[in-house]
Records
---
Amino acid sequence: MTQKHTHRTSAHPWIDVIWQTVCLTDGIYRATPDGSWNLILSCSPDGTPTVFLTGQATEPVDVPYSAGEHSVVISFAAHVFLAADTEVRTGATIRFLEVQDGWFLLDGVQLPLPSFSGAEDLVDKMVAAGLLKSDDVVAKAFSERPKAASKRSVQQHFRKTTGITQKDFQLIRRAQEAVRHLKAGQSAADVAADLGYTDQSHMIKSIKKIMGHLPSNLGSVHKI
């Protein structure tokens, strides 16, 4: 094991999941799409903090790391977006933020550095400062009571809010679900049938494209 990953879900409606990672050796991490954009605190081996935003991705991205690095990642729910920034929503865009002693600056607002235990408090501060907004159409798109809107309107809201299409989002989430079932020991044929893939080959191609790994080699895929 070259990295130790810890994650937790959150009751906060604007947070998808919070991650904490410690790098035990040098290596390259394959970051897989997860249907979220992220606020990340990365600390170098000497403790120097860097804070940055990463946008939605539809394919895996290789990221080098060094022994002793550690990070905290806040992954936001699909319906959440930055009020004053459209660039971070598109593709795998990275936006670095100014960092000073114990805080970072986002769109003119000073905020405490992200932490694994304090993610909810930080997001509340971002909401209160008007940095974050929510698209109600996207929020309800996958609920039992979706907001009344045409299919085209939902697609437009989805693309504008997340930076990716609704179809791409659904493909990513289905691939994540497939990986979860495969890691739990379910047969590939059963997973493909249960999740609506055309066949096992279709599922394998989808997982390979989105996760960058074949179903027989999913050990390093953790963002599921």
Note: The first strand starts at residue 3 and ends at 8.
---
Amino acid sequence: MEQKTSPDYKNWVPKGTVASLTASAFLSFAMTGLFAAIWIKKGSPLFLVLFLILAVCTLALIAISAYMRIWHNAFSYTGKRKLAARIIDGTAEFVTVKEGGTCLDVGCGSGALAIAVAKRNPTVKVVGLDRWGLDYASFSKQLCEDNSRAEGVDNTEFVKGDAVKLPFEDESFDAVTSNYVYHNIPSKDRQALLLESLRVLKKGGTFVIHDLFTKRKYGDMNEFIEKLKSLGYESAELIDTANGKFMTKKEADFLFLKGSAILIGKK
């Protein structure tokens, strides 16, 4: 297989999803026109009802496909905004691992954050973990490995696993990182998911976790931070990234990224 010359980190909003929605909108528009023509010709109340229903569906599909295209363009690594790249690079800047240490990136996806951390910490072994499910079918272990080679990085390793129950012993890593992962996992207690990731962190190790830390998704994060401190963690704090750091507040609200913040600290 020919080796890639440049990385392909894909897009958090797949191009295929945008294309499918756009095609559905066009099909719905065509069907709306067809039923409108039949209604005008025959004057049938049934076709009037079908026309109205399809008209509403068409407008909804047009709105959704347009919005998803905006999302796709915003998160594109090759587009003008490059929001995903800015988030990845900005998160990686917070990660410093001791020489010869190890780092676990939970939910590594296409390998972007794991590779960014590995580039900034060349003496550190960075392990990227993901379950690579059907919901993100374009992401895979092979893609991560290809991207790592394309970036000239040789201190990464990628393994299949589940963030809900990590396949590692307690205190296995010197650092734990993650980006926009836990809010996607169906759970009534996402604070428990955080504790599972922190379980594998060594004493003295650091954690840098970027996610949508809204109260609806996570509960009271201030209480969680106090809980960490009561458990003996040296430090823990939330750094807002949706108020100019990675994105503007207006942008965060429009893209439904409200609550974006980095949970950072030391065990």
Note: The chain is about 45% helix and 20% strand.
---
Amino acid sequence: MDTPHQPVAKIELLIRNPVAEVFDAFVNPDIITKIWFNRCSGPLEMGKSVHWYWDLYNASTEIRVLALEENQRIYIEWDVGSDNPSNVEWTFEDRANKATYVSVIHSGFDSAADDVMAKVVDSTGGFALVLAAAKAYLEHGIELNIVADRF
């Protein structure tokens, strides 16, 4: 359980698309692979584990879906089976004019680790790019390749 004193990465952005479309973009492999990672082992489903792959960087992670509330919330365990798993929560708020306010909170960092602040900063920047890429794709149909071009 997270305490108020543990560091978290928090990123928020308005995406001008209906909440059902924005939510689907984060659970549907056909869409999320145009925004974030290039392939995955399947869609997000409650209680299931999924592998996400960034082949360009020879990187991957296993995530486990802890909560999936349609058009409202996604809550996952990140880096399942690692020495330092953490949690990521997306919330989706329906706004006027068919818009969605998306909030991402990455928490559960090992606060005893020397590099905890570097991890929080890296996560904040990474999820900001993911939300920006989602906004560009969902609002304008543009694949920015922003995550692929990060390094």
Note: The first strand starts at residue 9 and ends at 15.
